[in-house]
Amino acid sequence: MKDIRDAGRAPVTNWRTAGPAVRHFAGRLWRSYMIRAIGMSGALTVLRVLTGVVTTKVVSVYAGPAGLALIGQLQNFVTLASTAAGAGIGPGIVKFVAEFRDDLASRRAVTSTSLWLTACCSAVVGLLVLLFARPLSAALLLDGGYAPLFAIFALTLFLGGVNGVISAVLNGLMHIGRLTVLGLVGNVVSAGLTVALVLHWGVYGALLATVLSPMVGFLLSFVFVVQRRWLAWDDLAGPFHTEWLGRLSGFSLMALVGGAVSPVALLIVRWWISSTLSPAEAGYWQAVYRVSEIYLQVITIPLGTYYVPRLSAVADKLGLRAEILRGTAMLLPLAVASAWLIYALRDVIVHSLYSVDFAAASELFAFQLVGDVLKIASWLLSTIMVAKAMVRLFVITDILFNASYVVLVVVMTSAFGLRGASYAFAANYAAYLVLMVFLFRREIGLGRRS
User: Fold this and answer.
1) Which PANTHER family is this protein grouped with (predicted)?
2) Angstrom distance (rounded) from CA 165 to CA 93
3) Which parts of 147-232 fold into alpha helices (H)?
C-alpha cells in the first residue's frame, strides 16, 4: 500500500499521465485558476496602488526626500527582523500545505510545528531588539530618540509571525479569495492608520505606523480567519513535531537568507548614497524604488499566490516546463507593458505622487524599469529553487547577487553619481537572468535533453 502522502500528489500526477480528455480538462481548470488568481490579485493590486499613492503622497509632503529615505531604512529593518522572528519558514509552509493538502494529519503537523518555531524565534529576536533598541535607533535612523519605536516593534513581533503562518496556510490551500479579502481590508486599515499618524506626528507618525504593521495584520487575520472559521483551531494549534523540524529548516535557511540579505543590501545602498552624495539624493532613489514596489505588485502577487504553489505541486518535468512557460507568457509581457507605461508617465508620477522637491528622481526611471523587467524574468526561473527546495543553490546565488549589487552601486555611483545606482540595478539583474537561464536551461527546453 502506498504511503498516504502520495494522495496529496496523485491528482497532479494522474492529470499528466491520463488520456487527452483528462489532460485537456486539467489544463483548462488550472488556466482558469490562474486567470482567477490574477483577477483577484489585480483587484488587490489596484487598491494597493491607490493606498500606496495616498500614503506616499502624504509621507513625502510631510517628510521630504530625507525623511522618505529614513522611513525606507526602518521598513527594511522591519522586514529583516520579521523574517527572522517568523523563522523564515513561510515558503516551506506554502509548499508542504500545498503538497499535503489532502493529508489532514500531515498538514496540521506542519502548521503546529510552524507556530512553535515562530514563537521561539520571535522571543529571541524580540528580546534582542528590545535590549539594543537605542543602538539600533542611532545606527539606522541616526537618532537614539527613536528607541521607543524599536521597543514597540519588539513586543509585537510574535503577532506578526502568527499572521505570516496563517497567510502561508491559506496560500498553500490556494484560498485566493480569502487572501484577497485579507489583503484588501489590511491595505485600507494600514493606509488609514498611516495617514492619521503622519498628519498628527509627521515623520515620527510614519515610523510608528511602520512598526505597528505586524500587530495590525494579526488583528485582521484573527477577525477573519478565526471568527469566520476560515481555518479550524486544530489547523493551527497542536504539538511540536520533531520530524518536521528538519524539513522546514531547509526552507527556513532559504527564507532567512532571502529575507535578510536583500534588506541588508538596501540598507547599505541607502546609507552609501546618503553618506557619499546626500540624504536628499537617497530620498530620490527611494522614491523611484517605491514606485517600482507599487506597480510591480500586479506581477508579484499572482506569482506568489499562484506560481509558487503550482511549481511545488507539479511532479514531472513536462508539467514544470508547462507551468514556467505559461507563467512567462502571461506575466512577462505584463511586466514590459507596465514598465513602458511608467516610463512614459514618469514626470507626471513624480509630481503627482510626491512633490516638486522630488523632480530630480525622474532621471532614474529608465534603467530602474529595465531592471524591473529583468527582475521579473529572472524571478520566474529563480522561484524553481524555492519550489523544489534547492537550498544550497538559492543561498549561494542570493548572497552573491545581493553582494554584487552593493559593489556595483558603490562603483557606478562613484563614476556616474546618483544615476549609477539605477545602472547597477539593471546590470545586476541582467547578470542574474543570464545565470538563471543557464542553470534551468533544461527546464525551459534549451538543454540537449529537453
Assistant:
1) LIPID III FLIPPASE, PST FAMILY PREDICTED COLANIC ACID TRANSPORTER
2) 7
3) 147-155, 157-172, 176-201, 203-221
